[in-house]
Design brief:
The structure is a single chain. This protein is α/β, with parallel strands linked by helices and 589 residues long. 25% of the residues lie in helices and 16% in strands. The protein is built from 17 helices and 21 strands.
């Protein structure tokens, strides 16, 4: 009997072509009388993640028949490997329990406050779509209660700030889904019993919702990839279904009421993400959440093929939050700070290595593909507003920016890493962490597989700097590191250690020389994370075309939808429910 793990071992490898940006759906025009339908339901939901599962369950609750399509071999999307941090507010039962005064109006005010900015001057909420935020604010607290009623267990504590990204300044809202005894996808094991009800993890959100969906009669079809949407005519009429491919078999699935797109965004589609940031070329290959699932822009592309508009581009390019992050693990392809793949994972064959967690960035230097340092290695990434981050705070006041210390250099590491080497090409190229045997001892690293990825070309070692430079060749570094440049960089840095001052980039009191063989080069390229732009929707999550008109029968929620800057699970769960309620006709005015 095949286990879930057996079923998933080769899942990520099969999705690589789509993730690279090769998927370009075409619109299909047809009427119900001219097309042969292989399956049929009132509502067809595409994507079984944090937006898709709530949408499917809500539609079933409201009396609709539902087919839920998932391209991967298992449900969950990026949400199931997330931290499980769910910032639902507006007056939840838990907020009331802990005397936190919140309301839909306060939540709306927070998430549309033009005056809140980060240390680099970028605003978190200024470009949010007010209609979308109003709908979110009104449905936020009810969605929390709905999740609890549908099997999700939250850690029994007061709301806090942990994991919050652009959640509003006024009050604490962050809640945490408890993993309980569910198996974590990244390890293949559950948490230790003592931590199951006190830790926070996305598996504690997604597995209970999956169980509820199956119990309620949602038909879940995994390994069913949407190829295109079917509309009555290419640029007019109702969306009436989807074309799907599963293991080489093509199917037409009829949606009598609506299609809800919950496909998770576009971070893994190189050409699509470069619409918003031309710098994000193919070397940014360690997308957070992969290789469990791939954000391939399939929902956006399919909707655009039937006339849909994109929306909220600033929220994607704005230098705040975690749309692009500094790696937390080095020496592996997938180095997102809050997700480490272990050999027990059902997709470890695709991940190949766990990486080396960096405890102290003083232990390495970071160089670009020309072998040169480019910034203070200890510097941080972009920041985001969180509860009480701006203090004192008056909603909408021109004085609020004065409560934030302007310090762009504290968060400019990402920009420096993506700047390249002066060549007339986009993309900053690979970033390599260079260190020696003494650093390995200080960090207690084990520099052998499965911790590092020699096979994929994400980790190298040698007994001399010159030899190390010559070895650093891989797909995204077609020419080796210039040996002379790397030797000069290290010699200069060692002199900074002697002087106690980094005259180039201001690294605080450089501590450790790179001088003891063997020497190492580990992949340390920034990680692409959030999709915060996407399809244009209205407050009902109906998809809007380029003329500002509703595309009848088509809905979208979560990271494939634009107009909302907030990271994470709250907007996904809320918008999934909103879409389903309106599609089935149960939405409140």
């Amino acid at each position: 009997m095949k286990t879930r793990r057996d079923f998933l071992k080769n899942a990520a490898i099969a999705g690589v072509g789509v993730a690279a940006g090769s998927l370009v759906p075409q619109a299909a025009a047809a009427t119900t009388s001219s097309i042969r339908w292989d399956k049929e339901a009132d509502v067809v939901v595409v994507g079984a993640g944090a937006a898709g599962l709530p949408a499917a369950i809500q539609a079933r609750d409201d009396g609709a028949s539902v087919i839920l399509l998932e391209a991967a071999k298992d449900i969950g999307g990026h949400a199931i490997v997330s931290g499980g941090n769910v910032p639902l507010g507006g007056g939840t039962s838990v907020q009331k329990k802990y005397k936190i005064e919140d309301s839909p109006d306060l939540l709306f005010s927070d998430l549309t406050d033009w005056s809140v900015v980060e240390p680099n001057g970028f605003p978190d909420y200024r470009y949010n779509d007010r209609e979308i935020i109003r709908a979110f604010a009104d449905n936020s607290a009810p969605t929390f209660e709905w999740l609890v009623a549908h099997g999700v267990i939250f850690v029994d504590k007061d709301p806090d700030n942990f994991g919050g990204t652009s959640v509003g300044n006024s009050v604490f809202r962050e809640m945490h889904s408890a993993p309980m005894g569910w198996e974590r996808p990244e390890t293949g094991k559950p948490f230790p019993r003592a931590a199951q009800a006190t830790f926070s993890h996305g598996v504690g959100l997604m597995r209970p919702l999956e169980a509820t969906a199956r119990k309620s009669g949602v038909q879940i079809l995994v390994e069913h990839r949407m190829v295109s949407l079917i509309r009555e005519s290419p640029n007019s009429g109702k969306v009436i279904g989807v074309k799907v491919e599963s293991k080489g078999v093509k199917l037409n699935i009829h949606a009598k009421k609506a299609v809800i797109l919950a496909t998770g965004g576009f971070t893994g589609n190189v050409n699509f993400r470069r619409i918003f940031d031309p710098r994000l070329t193919e070397e940014y290959c360690g997308v957070a959440g992969e290789p469990w699932s791939f954000q391939d822009a399939s929902g956006e592309l399919a909707a655009m093929a039937v006339g849909a508009s994109l929306w909220g581009a600033f929220n994607q390019t704005g230098e705040f939050g975690s749309n692009i992050t500094k790696p937390g693990q080095i020496g592996c392809q997938y180095g997102y700070n809050h997700l480490r793949w272990m050999p027990g994972s059902p997709v470890f064959q695709a991940a190949r290595a766990s990486g080396l967690g960096v405890g102290n960035w003083q232990d390495v230097i970071l160089v670009n593909q020309a072998g040169q340092r480019f910034y203070d290695e200890t510097a941080g990434q972009f920041t985001a507003n969180n509860s009480h981050a701006v203090s004192p705070y008056t909603p909408g006041s021109y004085r609020n920016p004065s409560s934030v210390k302007y310090d762009p250099n504290s968060v400019n590491f990402i920009n420096a890493a993506l700047a390249g080497t002066g060549l007339p090409v986009n993309g900053g190229g690979p970033i390599w962490a260079i260190f020696d045997a003494d650093a390995v001892k200080r960090e207690s690293w084990d520099t052998k597989p499965p911790n590092v990825d020699f096979e994929g070309g994400f980790f190298f070692t040698a007994n001399t700097i010159e030899e190390l430079a010559s070895k650093v060749v891989m797909k995204y570094q077609p020419k080796s590191l210039p040996a002379a440049a790397l030797q000069n960089t290290i010699a200069k840095y060692n002199a900074f250690v002697d002087a106690g001052k980094d005259s180039d980039f201001g690294k605080p009191s450089p501590k450790y020389k790179i001088q003891t063989a063997p020497f190492y080069a580990a992949w340390a390229t920034p990680v692409v994370h959030d999709s915060r732009a996407g399809l244009r929707i209205n407050g009902h999550c109906q998809v809007i075309d380029l003329e500002g008109k509703v595309i009848t029968g088509l809905y979208c929620g979560g990271e494939s939808a634009g107009g909302f800057s907030q990271h994470g699970l709250a907007r996904c769960t809320v918008q999934g429910r909103i879409a389903a309620m309106h599609a089935v006709g149960k939405a409140k005015a």
